[in-house]
Design a protein that fits this description.
The chain is of the alpha+beta class and 565 residues long. The protein has 18 helices and 26 strands. It has four domains: 86 residues, Rossmann fold (3-Layer(aba) Sandwich), CATH 3.40.50; 66 residues, ATP-grasp fold, A domain (Dna Ligase, domain 1, 2-Layer Sandwich); 210 residues, 2-Layer Sandwich (D-amino Acid Aminotransferase, Chain A, domain 1); 157 residues, Aminopeptidase, CATH 3.40.630. The protein has an eight-stranded antiparallel β-sheet with strand order 13-12-9-10-11-14-18-16. Strands 20-21-22-23-24-26-25 form a seven-stranded mixed β-sheet, sandwiched between helices. A four-stranded parallel β-sheet has the order 3-2-1-4, with helices on both faces.
Length: 565
């Protein structure tokens, strides 16, 4: 049985793991967490940081693995290090560094004899200002080691304050705290020529051509992935020749690589970057939907020297399905209401991956991590596809309403057995339908109406609350801090209006409640929640609650507790 080592067990690596298991391989995983979704899927898990090079190598040697893979950009150098050290299928560390480092990549392009803009790596604001003074504006400032478009900023004129701010933001996203600045190459349009290519020895497989449309509001942010890329053949040949020169000069010999290019005003191919990993935005999955070619399967199998799927692809007749993925972003910050999809487009939708839920706070889409949803579509023909995709934001967009009240207008307070009954009742009535077990049902269980339950809580409970400047209650934490066994405060209700559930008020209310409970000589807090209520469970664990494994509750419930002494 082949044995493969995977670096990272996060959501992005799950498909690698699943594919390896489907191929019948024994899967070893290095992942420092104990909670990532890939962990339960593997045969053996080592709680090792994927960036700890020697620790990962030790695992690879101990397990006598036949191959090592990842698609996490920070881990790719260690994938190369292990494969190089153990003589496995893979790349040298130097070849991967040539692609990962912004500065080395621009030098590599020049060595390969292809177009590249002027570029510098800087470690301070002073160095940045000096570099920009010697360049033609506009310039692009970006983290030297980061994923996606995070932190990338275009600067059109020499503005010291704007440059300082751009440097600060880039440093936050750069894994090595270095920043790249280069002359901006004007784009003729917002459409990038993209591809996921596969390198195997001296062969380069080009099954992953696509167009990538950028957002007009954030032109460095990928928004629409379109298959096929209907570019004239001579243009594709020009791109292919340019990219292959760079790949061969880099020295890489194995793996899937994401390539982004466009043509300059002089009709030169500008290769923005070649990432030494699979593309994000579900692109490997979309390539399989478009052509039938599974590049993930090719990556996993060839990494352990299994060439069966590679040989199969030599005679496989490619499909040519018309596939589009829309990455949905919000134009403005606010409260997410719902995802709008035009009725005439709905019949072409294959699947939707929602990243936020109605009532969640949503940021204006500036970075890839701020996607609201991913919508996959498949069309019958090119004309129908482009009828929609050429003006896609007319057919798919998030409905976002303004935040009701600025954060500074929300007050946090505490009331002990003295809360106004009518105000609590009105709040409980308003939010009654938000919960798995409505508050009125909870009241019925103890033989009360909702109004009677509100009276009991307001006169006997301790209530941390959040209210607006008009007095409206938007959240409460209700418990008991008097006459409790073992000086333990039982929290019976945690309720936050949906539009404020990601505003930070839960944490502030909890801090208020905890401080008051401690002042009343409470030594611990406890509460119960549904096992399936993942959002609540995560929120409680963030403020220090742990699952009480020794308490068995009825049905699908968990008890959580926290010591406060």
């Amino acid at each position: 049985m082949k044995k493969i080592l995977v670096l990272g067990g996060a959501e992005a690596q799950v498909q690698l793991i699943k594919t390896a298991k489907e191929l019948g391989y024994y899967v070893v995983l290095c992942d420092f967490t104990t909670t990532n979704p890939g962990i339960p899927l593997v045969d053996k898990h080592y709680q090792v940081n994927t960036l700890d090079r020697e620790a990962v190598l030790e695992v690879a040697i101990k397990e006598k693995v036949d191959g090592v893979i990842s698609n996490s950009e920070p881990a790719m150098l260690n994938v190369a290090y292990i494969s190089q050290h153990l003589g496995l299928v893979g790349n040298s560390v130097e070849s991967v560094e040539n692609l990962l480092s912004k500065n080395k990549f621009r030098k590599l392009q020049k060595k390969a004899g292809v177009y590249a803009p002027e570029c510098s790596i800087v470690s301070s604001v002073e160095e940045l200002l000096e570099a920009v003074r010697n360049m033609k504006l506009p310039v692009i400032i970006k983290p030297t080691e980061s994923s996606g478009s995070r932190g990338t900023k275009r600067i059109d004129e020499f503005d010291e304050a704007a440059l300082c701010e751009a440097f600060k933001v880039c440093c936050e996203f750069s894994r090595n705290n270095l920043v790249s600045v280069e002359e901006y190459v004007e784009m003729k349009c917002l459409r990038v020529n993209d591809a996921d290519i596969f390198v195997l020895g001296d062969e380069i497989i080009w099954d992953g051509w696509l167009w990538e449309d950028r957002s007009p509001d954030t032109p460095m942010l990928p928004m629409t992935e379109i298959f096929p890329m209907a570019l004239p053949e001579e243009k594709k040949i020009k791109i292919r020749d340019t990219v292959e020169k760079i790949i061969r000069k880099s020295g890489v010999k194995h793996g899937e690589y994401n390539v982004e290019t466009y043509f300059t005003d002089n009709d030169e191919v500008f290769v923005i970057e070649i990432n030494p990993r699979q593309a994000g935005n579900y692109i490997p999955k979309l390539i399989e939907q478009h052509t039938g070619v599974d590049l993930t399967k090719l990556l996993v199998s060839t990494a352990v020297g299994d060439m069966k799927y590679y040989e199969y692809l030599k005679t496989y007749e490619r499909q040519n399905n018309f596939v589009t993925l829309q990455v949905v972003f919000a134009k403005n910050e606010g409260i997410f209401e719902k995802l709008y999809i035009s009725p005439e487009l709905e019949k072409y939708v294959r699947w939707i991956e929602r990243k936020i839920q109605p009532g969640d706070h949503v940021e204006q889409g500036v970075n890839a991590a701020e996607a609201v949803a991913f919508v996959d579509m498949q069309f019958d023909d090119y004309e129908t596809q482009h009828k929609f995709t050429d003006d896609i934001e007319k057919y798919i967009y998030p409905l976002v309403k303004d935040k009701l009240v600025p954060k500074h207008e929300i007050a946090i307070g505490i009331a002990d057995r003295s809360f106004e009954k009518e105000r609590l009742f009105n709040f409980m009535r308003d939010v009654n339908d938000l919960y798995i077990v409505p508050l009125s049902k909870q009241a019925e269980k103890i033989g009360m109406t909702l109004e009677g339950y509100a009276e009991k809580l307001s006169t006997k409970g301790t209530i941390a609350y959040a209210k607006l400047s008009n007095g409206a209650i938007i959240g409460v934490i209700i418990g008991y801090t008097h006459d409790t066994p073992d000086n333990t405060s039982y929290i019976t209700q945690v309720v936050v209006k949906s539009e404020y559930q990601k505003s930070g008020i839960f944490k502030k209310m909890f801090e208020e409640y905890e401080a008051y409970a401690k002042s009343q000589n409470m030594q611990a807090l406890w509460l119960t929640t549904e096992k399936t209520n993942n959002a609540a469970l995560k929120a409680y664990q963030k403020v220090g609650f742990a699952i009480d494994e020794n308490t068995v509750l009825k049905k699908n419930m968990l008890r959580l507790s926290k010591m406060i002494v």
